[in-house]
Amino acid sequence: MILSFPNMGSNRIAFKTLFEQLDIKVVLPDPTNREAIKIGVKHSPEFVCFPFKATLGDFVSAIKKGADTLVMAVDCGPCRFGFYGAVQERLLHDMGYKDVNVIPLDQADLLEFKWVKTLQEVSGKRDLFAYSKFVKAVIFFLKKAKLLSDIQTAEGLFRAYERNQGDTTEVYKTVISKLDQANTLKELRSFKNLIKEDFNKIDIDRTRTPLRVAIFGEIHISLEPFVNVDIRRKLGEMGVEIHQNLSLWDWVSHKFHLNFHRKWLEHLSHPYVPMDIGGECQWVLGEYIDRAQTGFDASCHIYPFTCMPEVTARTIITNKLKKIYDLPIIFFSFDDQSGTEGMRTRLEAFYDLMDSRRKHKLGKEKILN
Ligand code: SF4
């Protein structure tokens, strides 16, 4: 058996560790690219969500590299995510990949431990002695997920201060590659220091006072740079501090009922959406309110075209929250047609707006006049 799973930015290295620690042979799909998206779009129903198409393309890439077992996370709904795995398996069989299995990895409530059964199924390890291996694999996965979240935070902050454009991106790539190769507990325990050391080598200008922007939205779009046209890097290179809570760690710790920050966001969004309606709707509303209350310069909501929960969040922000809270927001919906140039123009205009709003707030315009 050769196993694979779809891309989700750098987070794929955490999943790779999880399965490799269980002695499963893993191949990674090529990083998501134009060709994979083209294949996904060609073979998917036209109105299905964009992440479905992108991940189908990743699966085909993995199959071409020898994968015969594909793992896809599933949830209990309530949006289309619950059907991804089953429908993708049928489509792959129709495309001629008859021997491929798509195995659902249930993430609805990780404390129900259905995922253990999936890991047992794919690893073929069911005896008592295998438990220590399971525990080790899960610890490695969680540690790497947490470190990936720390790296994401550092990258979002440092880029706004770098003197030489591109330094942060280089360090980011290097640190991710080192994390991929770290395969002992000792290395993982000291990895936080390595992150600090490597990022502190970047030549930064501490006198800057960058604009602070919060990014939130649907998880696949938020974590896979190819599908979001690398929006974090683009904004960062304009000199903006990026703050993004959403990460693989953020999601997994929430599913283990350990994420109290998400509970806070649920509390904030409760008057508008009192339950999980899929995607990140509830938490996007909470993020918007929280960032407005904590003095951010602006926010950016990113989601796939036709994503029902995120469009609901957008509508509530536009029609209700923006009248209550003073926080500018820009919306980006992504699909296979999304391009760099249109986005750059909108981001530049948005940057100007944020900048003049801040100057206005500080009373600088008055002083200069
Ligand atoms: S969250 Fe949005 S994009 Fe993801 S499956 Fe649900 S509807 Fe589709």
Automatic annotation (TrEMBL):
- Provide the coiled-coil residue spans: none
What is this protein's name? DUF2229 domain-containing protein
Q: Where is the DUF2229 domain?
A: 8-70
For this protein, the parts annotated as crossing the membrane are none
